[in-house]
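Lab notes, practical 5.
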Amino acid sequence: QVQLVESGGGLVQAGGSLRLSCAASGRTFSRSAMGWFRQGAGKEREFVATIGRWSDVTRYADSVKGRFTISSDNAKNTVYLQMNSLKPEDTAVYYCAARNSLVPDTTTSAYDYWGQGTQVTVSS
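Output from the prediction step:
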């Protein structure tokens, strides 16, 4: 079992930056690819970024590519999402997720474990 806890959300002005953290625990973490998803008010949950285990292979949604960076500190069992040049349309609850595979995936159905989410609000 993998347990995930997100942190780092908050209120920021357009153009600002935030760094989200996802602290993971559990015996299967070292075998789990990780992902970030978000869900805005009245919208469906959508893919943001993913990273494979034991590699630096990453994928990003087109809407965030060039602005967001996903990274992992495997020794600390922590995954990060650095968010720069934030826009009002980035406002959402951001969720960390893990799957029982080493391979990254962009779909919500591929993930087995989810955190409770952290709110990101971008004002303009």
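Observations recorded by the TA: The two ends are 40 Å apart (CA to CA). The chain has a mean pLDDT of 93.
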